[in-house]
Amino acid sequence: MIGLLQRVSGASVAADGAVVGAIGPGILLLLGVQRGDTEREADRLLERVLSYRIFDDAEGRMNVSLLDGGGALLVISQFTLAAETRKGTRPGFSTAAMPADGERLYEHFVAAARQRVGSVATGRFGARMQVSLTNDGPVTFWLEVAPAAGRTAAPPS
What we know:
Blueprint: E1 2-15, E2 18-23, E3 26-32, H1 39-51, E4 55-56, E5 62-64, H2 66-69, E6 72-77, H3 99-116, E7 120-122, E8 129-144
């Protein structure tokens, strides 16, 4: 499972011409689900996202997490994060989860986040969306959680 997180002073997402999710200061998370991911990977990634220290402390050092400092979370599904891009000039998506699995794990991630964070907004799974953000820093990190040891992802179909 892949999370591209950005520290933002504000972000919103629209679908079908209407804003469906918006936050003030916090984290915009683009979430990519890969074949073989389970609730276990979703929970591990959520823990990393919420505890990742990307907000400034009193001395101006990145030493405060979303859980420590308040702030909101905007979660947007983005299957293109799971694209195979190592060769060629066109991305392949054989490593991305099937849509039903991706949606199930996205919904699991969001529900678990809502139990821990005061303000969680979302995009619309599977929709064509327009994302607007003001990246604060800029601060952007790529987090990836692989399936547990001894377990491999399903082979590409």
